[in-house]
CBS domain-containing protein (Streptomyces spinoverrucosus), 72 residues
Amino acid sequence: MSFSSRIRSADDLPTPNPDDPLAELVPELQASSAHRALVLEGGRLVGIVTSSDISRVTSWLSSSSAWRRKTL
């Protein structure tokens, strides 16, 4: 199956704003068969976030000594 056949259009993807919290995006990505979101600002594409990006960030945060110091 090709990538284009799995996603019909950009309308099928979540479109958060740059300031939206990741915690709000996670459920949308989990529901999306594409596992990616187009970050839009004023209707203009400014980035792409994937479920892999979120996994890397959460892994880094959970293992980061800087993160642990902030939460203690």
